[in-house]
Amino acid sequence: MLKSFSVEGYRSFHNKVVLDLGSPHDYGWHNDPAANDAYITDGVVSNALVLGGNATGKTNLGRALMDVRNNFSRRGPWPMRDESDPSFINGDLDGDHASFEYEFIISGQDIAYRYEKDGLQRIAYERLRVGQSTIFEVDRTNDIHDFGGMGQIGATGLNWDFSDEELSVLGYLSNSLPRKQAPLVYELRRFIDGMDMIGVPSSVPRRISMRGPLRRIARSEQLVRELERFLRENGVHERLKVIEGPEGEPSLYFGHRRPIPFELACSSGTTTLLLLFCMEILNAWRFKLGDRVVTVVLASKEQGVLPGVIKDLHKQVDKFFLTKKDDTYRAEIVLRVPKKEKQLDVLERL
Asked: What's the pTM?
């Protein structure tokens, strides 16, 4: 099980953030202590909720927690790995490495695994400890390669003459050693493979849907400031700036020390705020046409209109969000369009 996790220098986490599941204190969901046994296992919190407002780092915490999976496979989950992602390193970080540290309890033994990655997600530092013993420590920046504790986990007879900076030592061990020879490594790999994050399968459709309104906003200093004000009023305290691309096309960025493209770094909540801003300020309906997926934002003064639309399309509604501001009701509706049905027909029915 996972006992503790910390991350620093990654995306929105400039300073070190610790998720300590091994110190439950008075943690519990129920007045009956016996009922809380479902949430605490051997002194470690096994069921927990992370709550927060827009742009507070909930998704980034999940992505950081899942990053370890990329050390075992170059395909990470949905997609966690993107060598061209300029937001991987925190925009205000003095250094150029993000650090991740996990504490596991596997087969009754304490395992501490720490690594650091640069902006291209190359592993600059990696260390594995079992109990008080260091199994290996690799510091590529300072040319340190210590494999002195490998025999303690049955990792003998392996070739260490490799220089691939994207290759994790722990990943190499788990792919090279048979289960019977290194059972602890096998169980650790099995636990990490079971870690998963439920979320949007890809950010590409979202980016495409945002490009039009973002370009329009970026061309107007007044709209940039109005969007910045709108986001701050809704809890997203970010400074926005416009940077021209190689062909002179303005693009919107979060104004950190290392500017980060808005469309790459904004959370799902911030994306929804952008859609509401476009509807309210630009006076336009924003919708996204993807591979048989349609997202529509509607507004009405009448309370019953939007729920009625959702009810009429209930077989196609994947999810929806209803909000109210002043006297106006708003709905963001995600529709799943049948393969043989034209997307335009759905919009016409609305």
From this structure: 0.72
